[in-house]
Amino acid sequence: MFEELGYAGVLRPIGQMIESLGIESFSVWSDGDGFMVRDRSRDRAKNTPGEKALLNGKQSPDSGSKSKKDALRFAADNVEWRLDRSEIEKLELAGRERRRSSNRTPDAHALSQVLRVTGGIVDQHVGRLLSITKDGQVVNLNYLSSSGQTVSDDYSTATLYDFWVRMYKKRSSVDS
Fold first, then answer.
1. Mean pLDDT to the nearest integer, 22-27
2. CA geometry: angle at 90 spanning 143 and 134, to 5°?
3. Which domain holds residue 31?
4. Predicted model pTM
5. N or C: which end of the chain has fewer CB within 10 A?
6. pLDDT in tens, 60-100
7. CA atoms within 13 A on the CB side of 101
8. Cα dihedral 161, 32, 64, 79 sign
9. How many structural domains are present in the chain?
10. What's phi and psi for 28, nearest 5 deg?
11. What are the start-end ranges of the H helices in the chain?
12. What's the CA dihedral at 27, 29, 35, 37 to 10 degrees?
């Protein structure tokens, strides 16, 4: 499924999960056959309600997880977890089902769309994702280009919105 979706398709469900946890500042990086996600929220005395539920085992972004101890760990008051291929596939299928039942245009400013667009940039350059970090209105994208060079670019969320509009228009014209 990863190959079919490309980074754009794989990162969208990860973004949907991050949205559901109420996290605004985060890092995502490739980890073998999965991805690591780290909440980078600063100066926060408490975890988000979604993180609390996740930590208490009431809700899980990776419901197939063997053990919460294996999936989560704390690092300087930040939550970090790993999503493997099967967990991302489950998130994608759940997201696809939600999208089927809704006829509205996706919110271009949503984290899922921000990650989708950054993944699309990597796909367009036939690269290999290293990491994405979002802090405030800036997204830092690091990837290995097809020529083997490490590329690091900062994008404002406004610039990513422009990319999203072009991507959406291109997709709409193909679907028509």
1. 90
2. 35
3. 2-175
4. 0.75
5. C
6. 444 444 444 444 444 345 578 899 988 998 988 887 777 66
7. 5
8. negative
9. 1
10. -130, 135
11. 2-21, 49-55, 68-71, 85-100, 111-124, 157-175
12. -10
